[in-house]
Amino acid sequence: MMRAFFLKFLFSLLLFSFHNISYARDTITSTQSLKDGETIISSGGSFEMGFFSPTNSQNRYVGIWYNQIPNRTVVWVANRDTPLTNTSSVVLKIINPGWLALVDGNNNATIWHTNTSRQVPNPVAKLLDSGNLVVTDNANDESPENLLWQSFDHPTDTQLPGMKLGKNFVTGLEVPLSAWKAENNPEKGEYELHIEPKGYPQSIMRKGGNKVYRSGSWNGLRWGGTHGIQKKSYVIDTSVIINTNEVSTSFKVHNSSDLVRMVLTSTGSILLYKWADETEEWKTLRNAPTDVCDTYGSCGAYGSCNYDNFPVCGCLDDKFLPRDKVAWGKSDFSGGCVRRTPLKCQNVTSNGFLKYSGIKLPDTEFTWFNTSMNLQECEQVCLKNCSCMAYSSLDISNGQNGCLLWFSDLIDIRVLPEQGQDLYIRMASSDLDYPSSSKGKKSKIIKLTSSVLVGILVLSLTLTVVIILYKRKKKEINLKLKWEEDQILFEVSTITKATNNFSLNNKIGEGGYGPVYKGVLDDRKEIAVKRLSKTSKQGLGEFKNEVNSIAKLQHRNLVKLLGWCIQGDEKMLIYEYMPNKSLDSYIFDIKKRALFDWSKRFNIINGVARGLLYLHQDSRLKIIHRDLKASNILLDIDMNPKISDFGLARSIGLNETGANTNRVAGTLGYMSPEYAGHGVFSIKSDVFSFGVLILEIVSGKRNRDFSHHQDHYENLLGHAWKLYRDRRLIELVDEHLVAPCDLPQVLRSIHVGLLCVQHYPEDRPGTSSIVHMLANNVELPIAKEPGFFTKTKVNDETKSSLGVEISCSINEVTISSFSPR
Fold first, then answer.
1. Which pLDDT tens digit goes with each residue over 363-374?
2. Of 36, 627, 636, 734, which one is the catalytic site residue?
3. When you count CB atoms within 10 A of the terminal residue's CB, does the N or C end of the chain come out lower?
4. Which CATH architecture has domain 584-800?
5. 478, 205, 490: which is closest to 332 by C-alpha?
6. 787 near 802, Cβ under 8 Å?
7. 525 Cβ partners below 8 Å, 6+ apart?
8. pLDDT tens-digit profile of 484-522?
9. Any catalytic annotation for residue 129?
10. Per the CATH hierarchy, to which homologous superfamily does domain 1-154 belong?
């Protein structure tokens, strides 16, 4: 049952969110207005609406967010493309002809408004408990005919339960999702998610108008290209409507108390979240795209993407050949494949169909469908039309029902062994697996027997060669197994030219794996080349590990892998070039540190925290970095941080929290006590390293090089904790941060850092809590004693109070000047 909302006046008293409620109303009418900083509208249930500013943004917006959770999660923005910069006189009110509008009180100019063609005498606006903001012509009547406008018809990046995405053919209204431009910018971004009505409906994500991901068509159970998603689940129930009036999809939650939302992120991910009360964080239930095979059309027409193969792209089978063999050999699969035997349409009976099972059905944009036909009728209709390239069942929820025909090249096919469907592809009779007569059957048996015998002979002859080459190629093959095909395979000649023959003038770093060079490609794109040293003993393992880790990860705060080069003894990784090099070159340099103001430092702290959250929780892998430090934080041209160097990273199960290792490798000063002393690592090990990083960023001092007393060695962590204990934290702040504009924010960051470096892992906060504590003015727990607190100085060598020796792998794999620890 829908309930009326409450209107609250809130007075901003301090920098923090502290309000005084004066009175409440049930509706907004033409005689009422809501001023920025004074009022929030509540649905009386899960949602409220008001003015807000995104993190690290001065712009103001009108939005809707959840009112029952501690961290503000915005689900809808009114004026996303017209932010407010001077809000002292801006009001939200009803204006003629029944619009809800943001109006500048100084000149009465309309900044943003709803749109409706109907004019009513007494329009009212209310926020429903579903999160839907509606404008009606009667406050007490919520029937459809009285609805003038609703926010559910104009979503931003979030789909809520009950909200329909799709197109209404009667009104012409199309309802897509459109991502934010950035995490702190609600402006319409590059990515949009549509329910495409052309052909047989399917869910399509576009970037700048181009298809980049396709869910597959609805098959009665699920969107056909999604992984592990059924119509019925323990959390939501998905509904799809396809008729002459509309094509739409929506979902509802099984438990009405669950808070669930689907979000299209600014980086092009579709995430289904559920709020977890016990941990006070959003848990990711589903995400897409999940891997390179989800990239639209990555293998071209009649190409099939199999994530378990290398390369992932291949033709459907040996009855298809690459259209461009040269390009195919260079890992350019965009041209796709063609039939080995071309179709002849003079006599359609000379064609037949081959069954391909366990696949994601191709793009259905150019298709025709019929819900009443069976599969046999479907085959006959397709066979009689020479333009029909394939057919399949429309609905698999109860057997094989309906008919779906393709009338163009088949594109965007991937292997889905467990949840894929059957596709029947038109082939020339000579390529059919089944014979047309007994004579053909006998001929086929003879051919098959001959092929088997020849195969056995060839196998015997080549087995010896394989055994000889196996050991020599094993490491290289293993390196190749898990490459992602959205990167580029570079030739050695290309990289040699780009780096001026690996000139010393182009060298920008070095580590245990080998040197790093800056390069410039022919298209003027700048790259960073990590070249595995031929004499490296430890670099090969790190090289392989980095490939298998970062190639699967995409986030704005992670360094981007552009491609690779494996040729002979050469093994190189090619990354995006970071012009501002690494964080340590700023915060530990006296001259540069003076120009490194607090806003830049805090942006880096938040960016690294978001990158860690992605690694620990939101990526399809659960990654523990194990070597988070200042030199492994790269800075792009806008000084945005990107976590780099995944040579020591470890992937663990989604339900696991950590693991053990017999080989402790990392960097002293950043390793947690349990990892350094006992080889136990977890996401809390990364949290410890991040805490050290925060304290270094705020203080401008290295943890290991820090010395406060002449006769007693005390690291940065111990010094910070003593200042915290004595309520003198301001003394830790870098002297170059003269009168920081937000001292409470600086001190809060130090406090969060101390919480991260507490001695016992269970005392340290999780990554999602860290992000929340940094972004919001919530009460922080008291910090306990940090790890490695007590230190003694003996002959210029330091030993930890744990009484253990720590073996350190100097792994400065970073695009920056080499600086040994």
1. 999 999 999 999
2. 627
3. N
4. Orthogonal Bundle (1.10)
5. 490
6. no
7. none
8. 446 677 889 899 999 999 998 999 887 667 789 999 998
9. no
10. Bulb-type lectin domain (2.90.10.10)
